[in-house]
Specification:
five-stranded mixed sheet, alpha/beta, single chain
């Protein structure tokens, strides 16, 4: 039987991280330790538990059967310790030093994360933010490893294994450059279909968007002249050309000197946006505070 008196908390945290990362370099980075320090702890764990735990592989490490048996109960036990500590410790964001990684599209980075950065610089200046382009197919594993702390995406694209909170409903608006010679308010369907359009295709090269389904239902079509990889460049393109575009309202806001904003001449279904996070950060004071700050920013913006 293992003498648990020789297993300190640092060793157990190291094992939990190694089993999640399955890579000494990644585990060292996550724990802010050197690789030799992680290797030393792994050696101690092997001796104390009487098992190799993780075996070298071509890429990273492979856990033994004993390690796999330990992984989930160990993680849950450490989460319990974290919850006890968090519930009994005061949280002051101004004293926190941390790096958080937030994954989102360029549209969300502009609409939400830029205002969030203002809040962090004011209330939590010790927090560094790494913005990452979201990849929903990899999000579950990225969050399990700690590579991504928080994500913002549509609920239907969120992995079922992650936690989620809907934070707002977005609607589409049409945009055109100021003083466009072929547009008057309200924007009519014939003008909308006659003009050249810009669409956004995150995967690249797509020439269809939400407007095309809405037009098809009316027996109409539009001419898409340009496919862009993200939303942020679209207002600039529209402001410098006679092309128009359909974009989320939050992309168009704050650009009154460049573009005009119109209601689409036909109904176009909007979309929900959600906060997404891993269960391991649910009770962590920093990440709970961060989620609350984003939710408050959305509420304040909606009340304006």
């Amino acid at each position: 039987m293992t003498d648990i008196s020789k297993l300190d908390l640092n060793l157990l945290v190291t094992l939990d991280t190694l089993l999640a990362e399955r890579n000494v370099t990644h585990a060292a980075r996550r724990l802010n330790l050197s690789q030799p320090a992680i290797s030393t702890r792994l050696t101690r764990l092997r001796d104390l538990l009487g098992d190799p735990l993780l075996l070298p592989a071509q890429r990273g490490m492979i856990p033994t059967e004993r390690a796999l048996e330990l992984q989930e109960p160990l993680h849950q036990a450490l989460e319990g310790v974290r919850r006890v500590v968090a519930e009994n410790s005061p949280f002051d964001p101004s004293t926190i030093t941390a790096t958080i990684a937030i994954a989102a599209s360029d549209y969300v980075q502009y609409a939400i994360l830029m205002p969030l950065l203002d809040v962090l610089r004011r209330d939590a200046p010790g927090i560094k933010v790494a913005w990452r382009t979201i990849n929903t197919s990899m999000l579950d594993s990225q969050m399990a490893r700690g590579d991504v702390s928080l994500a913002l995406s549509t609920p239907e694209t969120a992995p079922e294994t992650l936690r989620m909170r809907k934070i707002y409903r977005e609607e589409y608006v049409a945009i055109a450059r100021c003083d466009h010679p072929a547009i008057s308010e309200p924007l009519d369907l014939d003008s909308f279909c006659a003009l050249d359009h810009v669409v956004v295709s995150p995967e690249g090269g797509g020439f269809k968007g939400p407007a095309d389904d809405a037009l098809a239902a009316l027996g109409r079509k539009r001419n898409v002249a340009l496919s862009a990889p993200g939303f942020l460049v679209v207002p600039e393109i529209v402001a410098r050309s006679d092309m128009i575009a359909l974009v989320p309202r939050r992309v168009a806001c704050g650009r009154s000197g460049q573009i005009q904003i119109f209601d689409p001449p036909m109904p176009v279904t909007g979309f929900d946006m959600a906060l997404i996070w891993h269960d391991r950060t649910t009770t962590h004071p920093l990440y709970r505070w961060l989620r609350d700050q984003i939710t408050a920013l959305i509420a304040d913006a909606s009340g304006d």
